[in-house]
Write a structure and sequence with these properties.
elongated; alpha+beta; four-stranded antiparallel β-sheet; 13 strands; seven-stranded antiparallel β-sheet; disordered N terminus
Length: 265
């Protein structure tokens, strides 16, 4: 028996009342994880439905669209489906969702090219690209820090990306940067920019040598930036099995280890 979201629940009596309340509480709890959400739908699978009163659920599904995490990170689509879940049904009566034990969920996340580029304007990301003291570049910058800005990512077929940016080497000169790289997953938690290739044709000839040096530095910085452990919600550990570029979308599939339902994000 599949109870599809809030709209499919009628007859608020017996276990139907419990189902309705669980869907309401789960939907509200999940919505609160996001700064904004276009839609969040919840479905609970529980057969026989009487198990619900003992807090036993066969699976829990969520699908959301137009989600904003931590005010700046836009996710076009996110979905997950858990294994069997044991919940504290008394917490549902109090308007909360509490797990009795950890559970796992298969998950899929879809990002857009525009959403990725907007994320590079978020303070959390910008501060990791500014005022950097990079080994081996002291001669270029005169010992001063280097900052990268105006990062633009273009998604390409076969998991390739093209990245353009500007480097401020603290002497007033802005050096354009252009590279291609292949996206890959490392240790299921990190997005790597593999085989970075300098795109010399995009750079004025007079700046190419300097740009290539800075391009290699930016590629290394990006490789150390996209680590899921930096973005985990409290009580939820995300892992990636694979990623794929599809047009102007980047799709991640993987799983989440859910120890507890996190608070607002």
């Amino acid at each position: 028996m599949l109870f599809g979201g809030l709209s499919g629940l009628t007859n608020p009596t017996g276990t139907d009342w419990g189902e309705r309340m669980l869907n309401t509480v789960a939907s509200q709890t999940i919505r609160h994880l996001f700064t904004r959400s276009e839609s969040v739908e919840v479905a609970v699978r529980c057969y026989p439905s009487s198990k619900l009163l003992q807090g036993s659920i066969d699976s829990f599904k969520m699908s959301g669209r137009g989600l904003v995490i931590r005010k700046d990170f836009y996710v076009e689509e996110m979905s997950f489906e858990t294994d069997a879940v044991a919940i504290d049904f008394s917490s549902v009566l109090g308007g909360k969702l509490t797990l009795k034990q950890p559970t796992q969920a298969v998950a899929q996340v879809t990002l857009t090219e525009d959403g990725i580029n907007n994320a590079f304007n978020a303070e959390l990301v910008k501060k990791r690209l500014q005022n950097l003291s990079l080994p081996g570049l002291a001669d270029i910058s005169g010992g001063e820090s280097i900052s990268f800005s105006d990062v633009q990512v273009q998604l390409l077929p076969e998991n390739e990306v093209k990245i353009a940016a500007k480097a401020d080497i603290s002497n007033g000169e802005l050096v354009p940067i252009s590279l291609k790289a292949t996206l890959a997953v490392e240790r299921r938690r990190r997005v790597a920019f593999q085989n970075p290739q300098f795109e010399a044709q995009d750079i004025p000839e007079a700046q190419r040598e300097l740009s290539q040096t800075l391009t290699n530095a930016l590629a290394e910085i990006l490789n150390n930036m996209v680590d899921l452990d930096r973005f985990d919600l409290d009580g939820v550990m995300m892992r990636i099995n694979r990623l794929e570029t599809q047009g102007q979308k980047l799709i991640f599939s993987g799983y989440a280890q859910i120890d507890r339902i996190p608070g607002n994000a």
